[in-house]
Every structure is written in structure tokens, then in C-alpha cells.
Fold this sequence. Notes:
single chain, 201 residues, alpha/beta, Rossmann fold, 2 domains, six-stranded mixed beta sheet, 31% strand
Amino acid sequence: MHIHSGVRQIKIFDTKRHALKLRFLKRIAFFLTAVYLCSACGYRVHSSVGTLPMGVQSLGVPTFQNLTNQYKIEQLISRSVLKEFSLRTRIPVNSSNSGVDSVLLGEIRNVNAVPVTFGTTTVGSQTFGAAYLITIQLNVKMIRLKDSATIWQAEDFVFRDRYALNTSVQEFFSEENPTLERMARDFASSLVSTILDGAKP
């Protein structure tokens, strides 16, 4: 009887330990799922709402000027910057330069793609890179409308990141490429973070 009771106690202990292990694994799975969903939305998670320079109370983000030959990239980037400001600040943000006290103006001066690894995609006599280092160069400034004062400026703002391509670099810059949209979101996050960090005392 004593031996049988001991075996039963061991079984009960093992069962409890198994149940605790299952609960722990479920919590880990839930946490990893939450992290994946947050990253899948394309925007980085930030811990606090930022503050714009010089007491800006409302901001317009009109479509940036495109001085490159990349078709409509200015629209994609401008939309992403506007959305990032909406997520990261508590002030009204829109795409107009009226009805606001300040505007963010941008000129896209250069967009460059340099292969960093090579794949096997061949068209004619050309083999296209499987991953590219994308560089975007801008002149961007924030202007207070009441006196046309420049309250923040980066004459040579440069964003670089690496992106995988399944086809040619020309198709990377097509209008419906999800990787291009991710690049625009990454760029917007970098630019807005730079502006908000610069606004801190």
C-alpha cells in the first residue's frame, strides 16, 4: 500500500508539472504571435507619443516633389509619412497645406538601388540581384505658415536599407509591389523618428 501510494503521488506530481509546462508554452506562443502580428503591420512599435518642434499644433504633409525618374514614388512615401505622423503624435495631421499651422515639405532627390547579393533570375543576357541596398535621399523641411519660418530641416536626409527582390529592380519600383510599400513605411518611420527625437529638449 505504501509503495502504491508513492507511485500515485509521483503520477499526480508529474501531471501537475505537465499542466504547468503546457500553460507556460501557451503563454510563450501567445507572446510570439502578438510580436509577429505587430511586426506584420509594417510599423515599428513605439513606447510613447512624440512631440513636434516649436509647439506645432497641426501639420500638413502635402505630396513631396519627385525629382527622380521613379514613377509615383512620391505619392507612396508621402502617404506613409502622413500616416506615421498620425500614429506617433496627438495633433491633427492631413495632406493639405491649408488649415494647419505648419507643413512638412520634401524633395525626393535620388533613389538608388545597388545589388548586395545575386540570384539566378536571368532576363536576356542580364542576371538580376536577389537583394538590393535601397537608398533614398531627400531635402525635407518643416515650415511654420504664419511667418514662413523653417523650424526643422534636413537638406540631405538619407535612408538606406536592404530589401529582397524576386524579379528585376525595375519591377521593384512598380506601383503594386508590397516590398516597395514596406520600404516606404520603413522610410517614414525613420524620418518621423528623426524629427521627433530632434524635438526633445
